[in-house]
Every structure is written in C-alpha cells, then in structure tokens.
Design a protein that fits this description.
The structure is a single chain. The chain contains four helices and 15 strands. It is mainly beta. Strand 6 and strand 7 form a beta hairpin. It starts with a strand and ends in a 15-residue tail after the last helix.
Length: about 300
C-alpha cells in the first residue's frame, strides 16, 4: 500500500488572521457633483445673499455665484459580490498549516527510518511538490463605496448703483481752496474770511459715479459637502482559505519501501525511490533503529 505521512516540518500553527484587507490602492477618478450636492451648496449661497441684501443700504445690492473649488475621495467598504481575484497572486498565508500533500518525490532520499511495527521503510527527506495549506492570501480587484468631499465657494459681488452729477453751491472749504490757488485773489485776501460771504462762493457741478460691481471677499463663504459613490480599487485578502499550491519543495516523511501482502512478499520501491540510501530489503529494514525485527509475518525474509 502506498502511503505518506504529514511532514514534521510543517509551518508553525497560528490562528487565522481576520479577513479585513490591508489597504485599498487605486486612483479614484474625479466625481461629478450630484443634483443633491449642487442643491446643498446653492442653499448655503442663497442664505448668504439673502442676509446681505436684507441689510444693504444706499441702493447697494448683492449677487452670488456658487462654485466647486476642489474634491478629494476616500475608499470605504467593499461592495459585496464585486470581488475578482487577480490570477497569479496566491501566496501561503503566514502561520498556515499543511493540510495534505501529493506528488511526492523520494528519488534523492537518503535519510531512512522505521515507523513503529509497520513493515515499511520511510524517508524523512522526501519532497512534496503539491501541497494544500489551510490558509492563503491573494490580491483582488473590487468595487468599493467611496466618499467624495467637495470644496465649494459662494463668491459675492457687490453692486453699487450709479450716481448722477449734481450742481450745488461750493462749500466754504472748497471755496477757500479755490481762492488760495487763484493768482488774482490769493495774494490779496484771506481765503477763509473771503469765503464766509455767500456771494463769494460759486455754483459748481459735482460729477456722478458709474455703477460698480466689485468682488466682496469679506462676504464670501466656503465649505465642504460629502457625497457617496463607488469606484474600483485593489486590495489583498489575508484570509483566503485553503488552497493547493503546485511546484512546492516541502520536505516530508514518505514511504520509500513497502512489503505488500500478509505473508511476506517482496520489497517494492515507492514514490520514485532509487535506493540512494540503501536498497529496499529486510537487511536495510533491520539496520534501522531500533535494529530489531517485528512480530509480523508480512516482513519479507530478504
């Protein structure tokens, strides 16, 4: 009967790690503000402009333009059912147990042993090339919930209406300034006293001012709004469960010689054993510790 026992060199046991992923990586594309996000921004801007116009004087009015000035997004929870494993990324998880192995090669075995009363010869340095572990890791792509934070601004413009030109009697100060700079009057009169007499003052035209629209940064408003969405990303699963790995080189203990039948029989090589550590024979069997026979009629005579 062909047999192999689990390796004594299996990895040290440890409890499974949580299936929580390490950290999502990927580039989240720019998101478009939803109708609700735009409405929330405009509500803030509308409240701002309502307050400004309610307290405006001298015919001044205010207008506001809401704009988005930036955005940043962060990954959240993975969307169930969207995960796709990336081929070729499976790895043995740290602390994983060996569950089973096959494809054993004992062709180069040299360390022979016996196992209790079994009429078989074992090698402790056989190699298993197909090994199943109880835990594995892998990378995957998935869809994730994301939160996008939009920065916004309410840019306020102050509208100052135009004022018409007016004709009026100049003030005493305006008169004094005019007289002081008059080459005919200035040297001969005291401008202040001269302008006390109303008849010495003149009618002047004060030009009007054009309408002005000025940005008013002091009355602007900024803030942020969060919006939910989804985006693709990549992560690593730390608890991927049992997985069978090929092309392994796990040292195991395996049968290299057995004696079939219940009444002696002949020795037969197993698992590719080539006899490098000694031929399959009863002499080889008896040379191995404890170097004694066994109470079994299945042990060949030679």
């Amino acid at each position: 009967m062909k047999r192999a026992i689990l390796a004594t060199t299996a990895l040290v046991a440890s409890s499974f790690m949580s299936s929580q992923a390490l950290a999502v990586t990927g580039t989240i594309p720019d998101q478009t503000p939803s109708a609700d996000t735009v409405a929330a921004r405009d509500a803030v801007c509308s409240a701002l402009i309502t307050g400004l116009n309610a307290n405006a004087t001298d015919g001044i009015t205010y207008t506001v333009v809401g704009s988005f000035t930036g955005q940043s997004s962060v990954y959240g929870a993975e969307v169930s059912g969207t995960r796709v494993e990336i081929p070729g990324t499976r790895q043995i998880a740290p602390g994983a147990h060996v569950l089973s192995f096959t494809n054993v090669d004992a062709s180069g075995a040299t360390h022979l042993s016996r196992n209790g009363q079994s009429p078989n010869i074992f090698a402790t340095d056989a190699v298993a090339h197909t090994v199943t572990y109880d835990n594995s890791t892998y990378d995957f792509n998935a869809t994730y919930n994301i939160t996008t934070t939009f920065s916004y601004a309410c840019d306020v413009t102050q509208h100052i209406p135009a004022t018409p030109s007016t004709t009026r009697l100049e003030t005493q100060g305006e008169c004094a300034d005019r007289v002081a700079h008059d080459p005919d009057l200035g040297p001969h009169v005291n401008p202040g006293q001269y302008c006390l007499i109303l008849s010495n003052r003149q009618m002047i035209t004060v030009p009007g001012t054009p309408a002005q629209d000025n940005a008013d940064p002091q009355d602007s408003s900024t803030g942020t709004l969060d919006q939910a969405g989804t985006a693709s990303g990549q992560d690593t699963e730390l608890n991927g469960g049992p997985y069978t790995f090929q092309n392994q080189s796990l040292q195991v203990s395996a049968v290299v010689c057995n004696s079939p039948g219940s009444k002696g029989g002949t020795w037969r090589a197993q698992n590719g054993y080539l006899g490098l550590g000694g031929a399959c024979s009863t002499a080889t069997f008896l040379s191995l510790p404890p170097n004694t026979g066994i109470p079994s009629v299945s042990l060949p005579t030679s």
